[in-house]
Input
Amino acid sequence: MKQMTYAEAIRDGMRVEMKRDPNVLLYGEDVGIFGGCFGVTAGLFEEFGPERVIDTPISETAIAGSAVGAAAAGLRPIAEIMFIDFMGVCMDEILNQAAKMRYMFGGKAKLPMVVRTPCGAGMSAAAQHSQSLEAWFTHIPGLKVVMPSTPADGKGLMAAAIRDDNPVIFIEHKQLLAVPGEVPEGEYVVPLGKADVKREGSDVTIIAWSWMVQKALAAAEALAAEGISAEILDPRTLVPLDKEAILKSVGKTNKLVIVHEAVKTGGFGAEIAALVCEEGFDLLDAPIKRVTAPDTPIPFAPVLEGAYLPNEEKIIKAVHDLF
Amino acid sequence: MKQMTYAEAIRDGMRVEMKRDPNVLLYGEDVGIFGGCFGVTAGLFEEFGPERVIDTPISETAIAGSAVGAAAAGLRPIAEIMFIDFMGVCMDEILNQAAKMRYMFGGKAKLPMVVRTPCGAGMSAAAQHSQSLEAWFTHIPGLKVVMPSTPADGKGLMAAAIRDDNPVIFIEHKQLLAVPGEVPEGEYVVPLGKADVKREGSDVTIIAWSWMVQKALAAAEALAAEGISAEILDPRTLVPLDKEAILKSVGKTNKLVIVHEAVKTGGFGAEIAALVCEEGFDLLDAPIKRVTAPDTPIPFAPVLEGAYLPNEEKIIKAVHDLF
Amino acid sequence: MKLTKEQLLGFYKTMTTIRAFEMKAAELFAAGQLPGFVHLYAGEEAVATGVCANLEQKDFITSTHRGHGHLIAKGGKIDLMMAELFGRSTGYCKGKGGSMHIADVDLGILGANGIVGAGQPIATGAALACKYKKNGAVVVCFFGDGASNRGTFHESLNMASIWRLPVVYVAENNMWGISNNQKNHMNVADIADRAGAYGIPGVAVDGNDVIAVYEAAAEAIKRARSGDGPSLIECKTWRHRGHFEGDPAIYKDPKEQEAWLKKDPIPRLAAKIIELKYASRAELDKIEADAEAEIEAAVKFAQASPIPSPEDVFTDVYAE
Amino acid sequence: MKLTKEQLLGFYKTMTTIRAFEMKAAELFAAGQLPGFVHLYAGEEAVATGVCANLEQKDFITSTHRGHGHLIAKGGKIDLMMAELFGRSTGYCKGKGGSMHIADVDLGILGANGIVGAGQPIATGAALACKYKKNGAVVVCFFGDGASNRGTFHESLNMASIWRLPVVYVAENNMWGISNNQKNHMNVADIADRAGAYGIPGVAVDGNDVIAVYEAAAEAIKRARSGDGPSLIECKTWRHRGHFEGDPAIYKDPKEQEAWLKKDPIPRLAAKIIELKYASRAELDKIEADAEAEIEAAVKFAQASPIPSPEDVFTDVYAE
Ligand SMILES: Cc1ncc(C[n+]2csc(CCOP(=O)(O)OP(=O)(O)O)c2C)c(N)n1
Ligand SMILES: Cc1ncc(C[n+]2csc(CCOP(=O)(O)OP(=O)(O)O)c2C)c(N)n1
Ligand SMILES: [Mg+2]
Ligand SMILES: [Mg+2]
Output
């Protein structure tokens, strides 16, 4: 085990896999000597050279579309889209090519590709550089969707994403990049589709992912002090989703709060609520609460962005509403 | 009242508004003498001429993006995207420009624009020409999302969409185009945000929109024969959503089935289920069921597409599961 | 460049096979036997044929919604194609794709594509893989005049140029994007001129002359294979039919249609072959008849094939 | 074209105001007073100034992430801009937008934009509105060399060309897209050459020479205003600073940076003005000092302005 930040751990996941498999290569805007807009790829250009770590033009459509072609032709590309907000530029490539090629071809193609992209607000980057758009990708069959919340998960899920033979959308949270944690050295794989109980509890289940796991853990601390024992469940991958883990936890606590940073309407929290309401209705003894951003674009000014973001207090309040 | 098909009624909605306001113009691929890929714009080129009904190059990004600019500069454009499946090509324009401009500018812009686009399967058009992607748009604050299920709604909602000062995604179902119905003549506006009870009932609420309203009505017929009285609620606009109407109906029947053609995971049905589970939990006496397409791309062969689509039998089965 | 008898007769066989496939598809569609959209390549056979004659099995192509010709020219199996059009489980895609999504990855065919322009970045990425793997393979990207106006065109050609990728972009300029004529959708006469925006060679050729196409493609493919980067080839041609089957194409000027029908690439090649005395009319007729027979056999195969079972909907979404 | 004293002094005022705004923003950012991303225009002032000097209030512009210069040149109010950078409720966007989203629709400023290339179709659509309304207005679209590689560029210029829209596309070629040099992101020396792909005029000018920019823009804007359609102008320039504040720009060759700093457009214009005897050095210093004073006042205004209240998050999503 080694102490690493989330950014270092994700980089380590890429580095180990790139050493392991010469078909893995990485490209995107400013991923080379610049090291990526948030420094996540720093040093990889120096280590692997310009054939495997490639700066692209500002052409997200071609970045994502070429990753599809490269994967179909035998590579395992990792493509970086500098902000998840820019995924709109290459949605056709994700929606109609990456996600569907295998199915449309009757199972006769494999697309081992990873699209890495950072999400999230908290740095006053305003409406076009702060979004959380994971719900879109969960609504596209054929994709996998990964959202690590810790350094170790970041490394292990990255390895799993690279080794997976399907297109994986790998979403890194900007606010987590500098967060440190213990990370296994060398090859380390966290399987896709397995949720992780980040804190055990018995009175209420709080499902949260990415940055919101931290907020939920903080809320759980405060709740514990009042005598409410909250279980924090981190699905880690939204697709595939670990339904058993969700139903098991709700079966234990009979209360559910879902926390996500994305805007409320149409967020992935709705899917989890609907799932539990459909398959675990009898487990519930209270309404399912969602703690999310409001249905507005993301404002710039820190005070507004602070009001916009879900946080510890909002989570605590939602839990209180259930008791 | 006049007998019109859904396609004719939507066209009539556009025609009446174009006559009423010279700033309304229509453009898209083959909307001119070709009359649109599905004939919805037939005759408008002849009636309004090439300055107001304009064929574009195959450039969805520029179509949607230019509609934003045209609206910001004082027109009320109607832009057609030939299939909703192609919205991926212009998602940035929808997500980051149309939906957010007003907010980002601190309320100092108006974007009266309509993006018309057909959705839906049922014609063996396969995975890239058959999708139902409404959920994406509901997850973008700043947009309105309209999905008419009848000719009269098609006309009246089109008028409302054109008159609205916000970007409206207007989704027409290909399987409804030839469906006839009674439609008011002349100016006719159905306000956005008002659900419509398409059939009154007391035992179970079925919420469905677009083509699925027809399937739900057929299922309700069959259920009535067995003595189950189903209420069919058509939200008509997903954003704004008529929450009161939904909670009122569930309050009456205490049972809810949601039907949509989009794939299940992350579909708008999840949002409705989550809403009811959060704000109307005590109204429910059974799990909320969703009848949707499975989480797969849309297959080509008729037998596969038939198996893929939600239908009367699947709805009836879901209702039976609640009794 | 001197083409051999075998080459020209090979072209003839490919072109007549494509034509026979397309005319049969038209007939079957009209008879209500083919579901979905069907876009035919009739009239444009010289393009796919002349280009793909330069390719090896390891090379890749990306195709379009109008893909039958490309697939046949790259070696796609007629019976599996036909079965796919019928939506049978023996089809290339087990009935999941249909005409717009036929692919044979083992033959380097990365798929027909229902999204106009989508093949451009995919081809670019495949070329990146070829270059990276140093396997000597090249990629050909087919697309239409309409697709030349998509952003994908711009981003792809720019990317391929700066990375000197082994890819040839082939613009099939049949002068129409559905009902929209080239003169209304672009303000340049030659799509080939757009190559200048990327610092790559661009050439416009008579797309109804298979020899001209072959020669232009030979040069571009050689350039790509030897590491000298991408090119753009524009082939001027004409689609004989409506945009899709069922389109009466009222937007076409009947005189122009007639004039183009006279430039049909197949009789043109036949005349050339006869002039060169590589074959007699009767021998050419035999080639055509064989092509038709092959298509008939494919139809029989398709019609005798099982339809998929409903549970097949759920498979092939993810690789294990 | 002979420029008057008033014109040149006007340019000088605009350019020094932009520079003063940017240097103040740099200082404030370094002091931790400005939240978010801040991209500065220092070094590129001649472009916005020379272009916008040809515009009337009814005309439109679209700007970029590096937008302060465009906004000032089009008449944007300094105090409202500065207040927006501070995220105050008196700011142009009430603190909701920040540096990347400042707009003044009444002045025809359709916004800075955080999405590279996004202004291109927006400008195209605004030009469609101008043409349709026959109001004699034109549109100028500013964007960078990096943005010239986005699909939006291609689709927009093509659309504007076929529809003969009154729009001028101004490529600000500062040779960098963040850390990616032009020689690595495109394979042509002049972005202006891309105009040929759309059948429109394209010209490359020294973007650090405000007079050259003014003249090229005058011609293109006249063409647009008189109904003769769009043009592309490339202005070769250099950003003095990192991509955003905080970027040490290690990817820049210090020699090249130094050489370009010598070509700073502001001293160049000063020299010209003095040579023409339109003003003395002292008079120019006065203009500069006034500009700095105006910026100081704007900072005071901003700092004295209220911060938004949390409930403001919920307003301005929809128009009623
Ligand atoms: C992105 C996208 N936009 C629009 C369409 C609808 N469409 C299908 S084919 C076609 C015309 C294509 O024209 P061209 O590229 O010239 O090819 P051709 O049909 O002439 O072979 C259009 C508009 C599509 N499939 N994808
Ligand atoms: C679509 C999109 N891709 C990437 C970015 C990130 N980004 C912001 S500015 C920039 C560089 C832009 O270069 P250029 O267009 O030359 O403008 P400059 O910064 O040099 O003024 C990049 C890559 C973005 N904002 N939008
Ligand atoms: Mg064409
Ligand atoms: Mg630049």
